[in-house]
């Protein structure tokens, strides 16, 4: 089964802890696919359609998660947000996957919940996006990747930390409150997801759907 990875231009990179109010641009109608990366087996229109589908699935799921997370933070701070993530984040993601008829997950090389551990292919994608950041790429230069595998489309887009994320994912010594750390230890005894600074790759959206 032939596999191909294609890099697509998009102004969208999905923030782990952001909400719709953060002003991210979820529209990329004026962006065009890099013609040098188009494989002869797929038309430019097909690639654009798969890109838009992946962005739609990720952005609608992020909106559902972000709204609930913002409410949890407003209601009870980082501790309440942790409890929300522990109980509701995966069920919300699963419900959106069912809605879109896709496999949809957020994965990391340094997971908090071990169920979100990246596989080998996803680790390669995370390394790719980390290298883009290390090379000074930001915003529209952080391009989602698409891999075509037979009849399936694999969509990958980076999750990048912002200030809100660091309340639960930042430096233990400087950014996370002691009571929050205690709850992290209680809820996630195998946690690997602290020590981040702003604008670092926390993980990726990994989405699989059928070619259409």
Unreliable segments of 5+ consecutive residues: 1-40
Give the strand content: 15-25%
Into which percent range does the helicity of residues fall?
40-55%
Order of helices and strands: EEHEHEEHHE
Write down the overall geometry.
globular
| Overall pLDDT level | 82
Helix segment tally: 4
Radius of gyration: 17 Å
Q: Please give the alpha-carbon distance between the first and last residues.
A: 18 Å
Number of strands: 6
Give me the oligomer status.
Answer: single chain
What structural class do you assign from the helix and strand content? alpha+beta
Biggest beta sheet summary: 6 strands, mixed
Helices and strands in order:
Blueprint: E1 3-7, E2 14-15, H1 44-100, E3 103-107, H2 120-134, E4 145-149, E5 152-160, H3 166-169, H4 178-187, E6 201-210
Parallel strand pairs: 2-5
Antiparallel strand pairs: 1-4, 3-6, 4-5, 5-6
Features:
alpha+beta; 17% strand; 212 residues; single chain; 6 strands; disordered N terminus; six-stranded mixed beta sheet
Please provide a brief summary of the model.
This protein is α+β, with helices and mostly antiparallel strands. It has helices spanning 44-100, 120-134, 166-169, 178-187; strands spanning 3-7, 14-15, 103-107, 145-149, 152-160, 201-210. Helix 1 packs across helix 4.
Description of the structure:
Helix 1 (44-100) packs across helix 4 (178-187). This protein starts with a strand and ends with a strand. Strand 4 (145-149) and strand 5 form a beta hairpin. It is globular, with a radius of gyration of 17 Å. It contains four helices and six strands, in the order E-E-H-E-H-E-E-H-H-E. It is α+β, with helices and mostly antiparallel strands and 212 residues long. The chain is 41% helix and 17% strand.
